[in-house]
Write a structure and sequence with these properties.
Blueprint lengths: L11 H7 L1 E2 L6 E2 L5 H5 L23 H5 L6 E7 L4 H10 L6 H12 L8 E4 L4 H7 L3 H13 L2 E2 L4 E3 L11 H8 L3 E3 L7 E9 L3 H12 L4 E9 L23
Parallel strand pairs: 3-9, 4-5, 4-8, 8-9
Antiparallel strand pairs: 1-2, 6-7
Helix pairs in contact: 5-7
The protein binds zinc ion (2 copies).
Length: 254
């Protein structure tokens, strides 16, 4: 899958002014990653299960979706949640490395451009108020807002609200995750008849996205697509606890 390319065309002298450090290797680059590091990102090779994007079930529903269908209808996931994408995402969220927004939103934009239908509205998975105050921003909302702008689609800024705190999903099994997020969201407006894309940074079991999609459908959404930057799998690294800003030091110059 091609990465979004740097679109500024200028004379070589001007490029010096716009160059920055590659977020992985530290070399001077024209984007947040140099071309060599961009090629190392763990792009997924297939769409996986059409509903939840689990790998190993190419173009047919996986066992999980057959046994317990999630409330969202389909999923687009750009990356595997593994090195070095996991480190980039942790840096984005916990160290406010917001220069990565355009890289992430551009990769999502490229991934969803092949979808047969285009949503009417983008909604972001919200953070609880305390988490938002602590972090200062909602990474999923930043991605959704950037995508909405570049795709000229409405972004429902406060479309979905987190109405109660939940435990970090990391470390919980699927049943506990479902229970943890039950009743955690509310929708602030009517979405009658609208095709909605629900944006989040990482999908693990899909429990959070499914609960959010259920609420969007109660508000009238005709369909809900999950658009996620990364899909975690059993065989890959699991996301860290969402409220832990103290990530282990890594040998990458963030
Ligand atoms: Zn690099
Ligand atoms: Zn599935």
């Amino acid at each position: 899958m091609p990465l979004p390319t740097f679109r500024f065309s200028a004379a070589p002298g001007w490029k010096q002014l716009f160059s920055q450090d590659c977020q992985l290797c530290g070399c001077r680059a024209l984007d947040s990653l140099c071309p060599a590091c961009a090629r190392e990102l763990p792009f997924r090779h297939g769409a996986g299960c059409p509903q939840c994007a689990a790998e190993g079930a190419e173009s047919q529903l996986c066992g999980g979706c057959l046994a317990n269908p999630p409330a969202f209808d389909r999923t687009v996931a750009v990356f595997r949640y593994t090195f070095p994408l996991d480190r980039l995402l942790q840096s984005y969220k916990f160290r406010q490395n917001l220069v990565l927004t355009s890289l992430f939103a551009g990769a999502l934009n490229t991934a969803v451009s092949g979808q047969p239908s285009r949503p009417d509205t983008l909604v972001a998975v919200p953070l609880a108020r305390a988490r938002l105050a602590e972090r200062g921003f909602n990474q999923s909302a930043l991605l959704a807002e950037s995508l909405a702008r570049s795709m000229d689609i409405e972004f429902a800024t406060h479309g979905l609200l987190k109405i109660r705190d939940t435990l970090p999903q990391a470390g919980l099994n699927r049943a506990a995750r479902l229970k943890n997020v039950r009743g955690a969201f509310d929708c602030s407006r009517s979405l009658a008849g609208r095709q909605v894309a629900l944006v989040d940074d990482v999908m693990t079991t899909g429990a959070t996205l499914s609960e959010a999609a259920k609420v969007l459908k109660k508000a009238g959404a005709a369909s809900v697509s999950a658009w996620v930057l990364a899909r975690a799998g059993r065989e890959w690294a699991m996301p860290p606890a969402q409220n832990d800003p103290h990530q282990p030091d890594i040998a990458i110059p963030f």
